Amino acid sequence: MPLTSDFSLGKVDVAMTPRERFEEFLQTRGKRITRQRRMIVEHVCSHHEHFDAEQLLEGLRKTPDGATASRPTVYRTLAELVDAGLLRKMVLGGRAVYEHDYGYPQHDHLHCSGCQSLIEFSSDELVRIRDAVASRHQFRAQGHRLIITGLCAACRSGRSKPRVQDRI
Amino acid sequence: MPLTSDFSLGKVDVAMTPRERFEEFLQTRGKRITRQRRMIVEHVCSHHEHFDAEQLLEGLRKTPDGATASRPTVYRTLAELVDAGLLRKMVLGGRAVYEHDYGYPQHDHLHCSGCQSLIEFSSDELVRIRDAVASRHQFRAQGHRLIITGLCAACRSGRSKPRVQDRI
DNA sequence: TTGTCTGCAAACACTTTGCACTTTT
DNA sequence: AAAAGTGCAAAGTGTTTGCAGACAA
Predict the structure, then answer these.
(1) Do B82 and B123 have their domain in common?
(2) Residue ranges of chain B with pLDDT lower than 70?
(3) Chain B, 40-69: which have a CB under 8 Å from a chain A CB?
(4) Which sign, positive or negative, has the C-alpha torsion A70, A73, A79, A84?
(5) How would you class A164 by CB atoms within 10 Å of its CB: exposed for 0-12, middle for 13-18, buried for 19 or more?
(6) Which residues in chain B (119-138) have CB-CB distances under 8 A to chain A?
(7) Same domain, yes or no, for A51 and A115?
(8) What per-residue confidence (pLDDT) applies to A14?
(9) At CA B100, angle to CA B168 and CA B128, rounded to 5?
(10) Reported confidence tier of residue A6, pLDDT bands at 50, 70, 90
(11) Are residues A31 and A66 in the same domain?
(12) C1' of C15 to CA of A15 (Å)
């Protein structure tokens, strides 16, 4: 991701903070910086796990000042954060799950079918294979998603707290 | 794709046909072989592309004898076919898409974001990587899914008929 | 002031379920 | 006859939308 690098003077932010980047994103599109959007980026940026819309909504309600945003606004803002390149969206068990994508290296996931936990990993080899396969099919790869499903160590040994079962 | 090969005598089916396998699956669970289930396996087995529940439903209606199954029955039977190991399910753009899994080699997909087409490929190297990554994380891999998104040759060159846009 | 954003309620797409009736065994 | 399956209509789930009032620029 080309970020912003000015070599010459003063405030050299090699990379904008996620907040800044989002505000820039909004401004360049004539969108407004509202209380809700500010709350949401703030919250999202201070929690680094994977989450879904519902969890974000709850998280906002539990905030010290109790300020919230409505469900539609949460969905709308999540979409903007994805557009802005701050979040990455993936679909798991029928619902959208988000993770940070700004300043984070490309990676993939191990998904435990017992406790639904996600473990990240990355593999350069994988990217190589991806590009090789794509070009072999006259395909222009824009990205990929690899999810390895199975059982994590905890779930394999029996002691685990199985969570929601995949609906889809 | 290896379906039925007989070496020695008479009808030695080293592998059952998909229909047989499904019937066995049903019988061993005290489930019944109904008109609808028969229609559905039959139809599914005679079409080798990826499809979703709605397409199957339509396909059944267009059948010469016009016999159908209801939407709930289609969904119920698809789930059974997945359990029986005949179909594999994946989620794309917010809906479940099915493909044959019985007697078919493990493979992954290129997904064109222009025309939504799916191209299959397989890579042994990928499976190697999968297993290496899994064991490195004390994870027991049960399977994986790799989807490489991008643009196919047709869509890249502009002339394409863009279809449904991803909802999710 | 202007035009965007929000929240509400309602709509959506896809999938699942409760239940009375039909079918297979 | 008994048990399982079907279809209908209705309920679910996660997400999106139309619109009037609220708010940022």
Answers:
(1) no
(2) 1-15, 158-168
(3) none
(4) negative
(5) exposed
(6) 119, 121, 123, 125-126, 129-130, 133-134, 136-138
(7) no
(8) 52
(9) 80
(10) very low
(11) yes
(12) 44
User: Residue B81: how many CA atoms within 13 Å on its side-chain side?
Assistant: 29
- What's the pTM value of the predicted model, to 2 decimals? 0.79
Q: Mean pLDDT, to the nearest integer, of A49-74?
A: 91
Let me know whether A21 and A74 are in one domain: yes
Cβ–Cβ < 8 Å for A21, A100: no
Question: Which one, of B157, B164, B150, B78, lies nearest residue B119 by Cα?
Answer: B150
Please tell me the total count of domains within chain A: 2
For residue B73, the model assigns a pLDDT of 98
The H or E element that residue A51 is part of is strand A51-52
Q: Quick one: pLDDT band at residue A121, thresholds 50, 70, 90?
A: very high
Which of A1-5, A62-66, A104-108, B157-161 has the highest mean predicted lDDT (pLDDT)? Answer: A104-108
A33 lies in the same domain as A70:
yes
Residue B114 lies in domain: 105-168
Q: What is the pLDDT of residue A158?
A: 62
**If 0-12 CB within 10 Å is exposed, 13-18 middle and 19+ buried, where does residue A91 land?**
middle
Residue A45 to residue A38: CA distance in whole angstroms:
11
Report yes or no: B142 at the A interface, CB cutoff 8 Å. yes
Residue with tokens 């290129």: B110
pLDDT above 50: residue A79: yes
Closest CB from A121, A129, A139 relative to B137: A121
User: CA-to-CA distance for B92 and B52, rounded, in angstroms?
Assistant: 10
Specify the CATH number for the domain of residue B167: 3.30.1490.190
